[in-house]
Task: structure prediction
Amino acid sequence: MLDAVKVTSKTLVASPERLQEADQDSVIVKQVQAGDVAAFDRLILKYRERLYGVIYHMTSNREDASDLTQDAFIKAFQAINRFQGQSSFFTWLYRIAINATLSHLRKNRFKSFLSLDTVNSEEPVSQELISALTDKTGADRDAFVHELQEKLNEAMQKLSIKHRTVITLFEIDGLSHQEIADVMDCSVGTVRSRLHYAKQLLQAEMKAYIS
Amino acid sequence: MNQDRKNKVTIEGLMRFKRLEQPTPEFWRSFDTELRTKQLAAIVGKRPWWASLAAPFTFVRRHPAILGTAAALLVTLVSYHYLPRATNFGHNHVMQEGVISGVADSAQLNTHSITQVSDGSHAPTEVAKVSYKPTVASSDVQDSRFKSSGFRTEFSEIDSPAARSIAVSLAAAQATHPEMISQLMGLRSRIVTVNTPEYATEPLEHVTSPSEERRARLLAASLPTVKRADDRMGNVGIERTVNNLSEDRLYQSIRRYDVGGQKISMTVKF
Result:
């Protein structure tokens, strides 16, 4: 079970905010390693939404995403005494979650089904996009949002697991190429290549909405 | 108008839209409860039996260089311990093959000498006697050495298609001509019993002409071990003789002492 925990000696090339976060995390991690189990709750509260978001967009299934997120936190909790701080806690936790998700996706490659969260259509981004696509309002608008959400998730599921991971981490979670390379244990060039290819595939799938 | 608006939509915009898929606050409440339960279970839960076995290897897994060095050292020690034995085994095996082939060669040589001598005097000589016994002993040597080395020789089990066809033909012939086959089988059993004794004796072996005795005596002088060949219990000497008796040496001895048959001449140089 703990084989998914792979710690590398690479360090992230991160922004100052990310470095500050990493320092705060390392303090909390040391407290947990010293026996303060309750300190781990702060790490859970800090990263649960981001971690869940990444896993959800990779699986397109909210129940699976919930279970995998919880498992990732449990694995991190069990293995935190082996965490030596060679990478940031954020990267380490992401690696645990991504490895567990990849393993889950490989196991259930042929039996995936969608179980989607609701889209917050009141957000300005959502309104702008919907108004760009259609002039419909009211019930028709909600139906269109639902349809678009399903099309997007289906297009994501048509991508290979690695391409889906890269585009999720870059476009949705906002990680840099270097951070993705560290999390996925590959080169930056590979990340860029996969990202380019994934975008091409998504464009082909969503061309009805793009042009 | 709508077409112009659609052109503004990009993949990045769609991904931003997808980012808005978020769970409800109720979801997070149940998530926290489940996670707390799992965390407590992980704390108090019994670890699997293999986890305690894997624990000592955690240090090694962190430092693979130590594992590699230990493996290399182990391989070196094992090879150092077993390689000389394997080399000796191979050497012995080669030696055995050499001895056996040497015995076989000498047996061929001796058979040749039997026919050669028999043409001349119709009686086996001492050389012939010497040469015959190792032929029996060679199989004994071969079997005993192969058995002692744990080998199963191909000679111990003859199960070829030819043997099977012979057996079938024999059975058919026995069905048609039982008397003749029983006689033949009796002959075969007699042959077998003839081969069974350790020292086979030939009737003509006891008959030696004076010239052959003289020749054997001279050869015994040149090859001291040949003299012991007459001794039936001198099995070791016979073996050594056969092993050492090469064709070249035999003919060289004959040429040196000019043992051509009836006369003996010796040249002494000062």
